[in-house]
Amino acid sequence: MTTNTSQRFSANEIRQYTFKVGLSRTEGGVMELISEAYTFVLGGLTLLTMAGAIIVGLRNSLGVGHESALVASAVAPGFHSVTLLQASATVLLTLAASLLAVEMTVGPITMSVPQTAWWLGLPVRRRGFIQPGFLKSLIWPAVAAVAVVIPIALGMASNPTPGRIALAVLCGMGLGWLLYGVAAWCQITNSGSWLKVLTAVITLVAPLTLVATALYNNTAGAASITGAQTSWMEYLPTSWPLLVADGAIWPLIIVVFAVLVLGAVYLNLERITTRQLKASAAAGAYVAGSLMSMDATELSKSLGGGPASGTSRVRLPLIFHGGTVFSRSVKTLLSTHTTMILRSPMSLLRVLMLAAIPASLAAVEFLGNAVLIAVVLYLCAHFAATTLGATARFANGNPAVDMLMPLPAKVVRRVHYVLPALGMTVWTAVCFGLLLALGVGSPALLVLALLAGPGLGAATLRAAFRPAPDWNMPAVATASGPIPTGAVKAFLVGPDLTLISLLPVLICLIAGAVPAVAFPAQLTLTYVAFLWGTHVRKPKSAKSKGMFGMPPAPVAK
Amino acid sequence: MGHVLDICTPRILSLELQPEDECLHPRIYFEAMSKATNSPQKSPARREPAVVRADKLQAGYGTTAVCGVVSFSLHGGQAMALVGPNGAGKSTVVKTVVGQLEAVSGTTLINGAEVDDRTLDFRREVAVVFDDDAFFPALTVEEHLAIVSAGHGVEDVEETISAELEFFGLAALAKSRPYNLSSGQRRRMLLASAFVRPRSLLVLDEPEQRLDTAMRHRLATRLRAEVDAGLALLVVTHDPDFLSTVATKALFIADTIHTMTPTQAAVAIASENPHAD
C-alpha cells in the first residue's frame, strides 16, 4: 500500500515487453503449422487434383463446351441475370454494410481479453496500447478496397484506363476508411445502435434482392427490370468508386471526409472507456470462437451483440408412455432436439438464407462462374450444416444430458443425426431448386444434391463432436500472439466431411453434366459419411495399450 | 430475508437505508451503530474526505436496475462489506462504483472526483480484482505481476513480486504459466496483482472464492492490517469469518437494503447459508 514508486514504464514499453516475452517463448514455426496439418492439406490437394481430372474428363467425354472449366459460366444460355449495375451496386452495398457491422461490434479500436485485464488498470496513457493496433488495422479497409473495386471497376467502366482505376481504388479506400472512422467514432462515443440495426438489415436483405430480381426477370419476360430502372443505384455512396471509374472526380470528396473523421478519431483515441474496450475484446473473442467452429448462428450472434434472451412458446411433449423404454427414450431425445431447433427460428431462417446465397451469384452475370459458385456453395453448405448442429454441439459440451438416457452412445449419436440429415436434405432441395430456376444445373443435379443431403447431416455431427484442440502442441508465434498448432488440426475436422459429401455434386456442377455413375458414387460417399459422422470415438485412455504397444505397468494401490 | 429479519433487532429494521433522509446517512448511522453495539471493529470518526461516496446510486444494465438505491461513503481506514444473497446485485454495485458499468441513476465520487477510469489518478489509486480469468498464455506468473508492478512504477519490482508470491504461496510456481495452475492458484495470482502495486482503495469481488481456509484467513488478516493502516476496502463476500475479520461496516443488499455492523452481517450470512464453510 505504501510501496515506493519511481518512474513508470510507458504503455508502449509495456506492450513491447508483453509481446517480446511471449514471442521469445514460442517453440514452433510456420513449418510446424504446415506439418501439423499436412495430412489434411495433402488430402485436400489430392482431392482437388482428382476432382479437376474428373471434371476435365467428364467435359471431354460428354462434349460439354470447349472452354476451360475454370472460366466456364454455370448459367445456361437464355436465362436472364440482373443488370450489371444492380449487381455491382448491391455487392458494394452489402460489403460496405458487412464491414461496418463487423467493425461496430469488434471495434476498430480493439484489444485482446488478457490485454484488457492486465493493461487497462495501469496508470499509463492508453494511447500507447491502442494507437499502434488501430493504425495498423487501417490497412484492412484499404486491402478490401483494392480487392473489391479493381475487378468491379474493370467490369463496369466504359473506358477503364489505369489512371481511372487507380482513382476508383482510392475512392474505395476512402469509403472503407470512412466506414472505419464512423465505427471507431461510435465506439468512442458509445453511440450508433441504430446504425448497427440498419447495417444488419442491409447485409441480410441486399443479396436476396438479387435472387428475387433474377427470378422476376426470368418469369416476367419483356417486363423484366431494365438498366434504366436501376440507374439510381449508381449514386449510392457505396457505388461512388464505380462513378470514378467512369470518369467522375467529385466522388473523391469521400477521401476528404474519411481523413476528417479519422483525424477526429485519432485525436480522441484516449476517450474510449474501459467498458467499450472490454466489450469489443469480448466480442472479438466470441467472433474468433465462432469462426473456429464455422457456425453461422454463433457468428451471427457474436456480430449482433451476443446471444438473445427471452422465452419461447414452443412446447413439445418430452414424456412418452407407449412402447419400450428404448423407443420412449429415442422419442424423448428426438422431441428435445426438435424443441431446441424450433426455439431458435432465426437459426432456421439463416439456414434458408445460406441456401439462397449461391443463387445470388448465379443471378449476376459476371459472378456466374461455375468454380466460384461451387466454392461458395461448399462454404454455405458447411455453415448451414454447423448451424443445424447447435444441439449436437451442446450435447458435446454437456455430455451428462445424453448420458441420462438409457441408450447406448452409438444410438444417441444416431438420434442426433436425424434432424441435421433431414434439415440438410431440405437445404439442398432449396439451394439447388433456386439454382435450377436461375439456369444453373439440371433436374439430375438436383436429385444428386438430394442424395448428398444426408451426408451433409453427418458432417454436422463430425464438426459438432470434434475433439478439443491439443493445447500441449508447440505454439507458433503470430502477429496476434502464440497459437498452438493443435488448434489448426481441430479446425479442419468437419469441413473435411462436408467436402467429401458434396464432392460428386460439386464435380458435376463444374463439369456441367451429370453422368449416370455419379449417382452410385454419391450414394456410396453419403453412406461413408454417415458411418464416419456417427462414429463414437473412444476416449484415449480406453484405446491406450501402453507405451510401444506393451501393456501398461500395474499401478500400486 | 426471513433469517435476517429474525436476527436483526427492531432498531436495525427501522433504520433501513433511506438515502433521501439526511439523518440516516450511512456514515452517521454506522458510527452510531458502532457505539451502540459495542462492536470489536470500531472505526474512528473520520474528518478526511471520503475515498468513495456513492449518492443515490442505482446499479443495473442499461436502464434496468438490479437492486435498490444505494448511498454510502467509505473513508481511508474503513472496510465496507457488501453482503446478500446470490443475484441481489452486489457485484453489479461494485462494478458500477468503479465505473465498469454505467449507473442507471445516481453518482459515485472517488477521492472527490466523478468516477472516470480514463484518468491516471483513478488507476493509480484504485486497485480492482474481479474474477477475470484472462491471462497471456505465454507469460509466466511473475511476468504478469511484473507488468502490473512496473506499470505502476514500483521501485523494487523483483523484491515486491517475490514477497507477494511468497505470501500467496506461489513462490514455487513463479515461472509457471497461468493455464498450468489450478483454479485456486490462478485466483491467488489475481489477488497478488492487487498487492504488487500502490493503492488507496481496494475493490474485491468475493476474494474468498476458490481459496483454501488457511489462505482465506491469511488474506483476511492482511487486509485488516492494511485497513488499519489507512486503506479503504470495498469487498463483496459470502464468508462470515472473512467479513468479521476484515469489515468495519456492511451493507446488506437484497430486496431491501440495510446497513449493518459486521457482526450482524456475519450472522446474517451464516443464517442465509448455514452450510457455508
UniProtKB/TrEMBL annotation, chain A:
InterPro entries: DUF6297 (IPR046264). Keywords: Membrane, Transmembrane, Transmembrane helix. The chain crosses the membrane at residues 37-58, 78-102, 134-153, 165-185, 197-216, 248-269, 347-364, 370-396, 417-438, 444-465. The keyword Transmembrane applies. This is DUF6297 family protein. It comes from Arthrobacter cryoconiti.
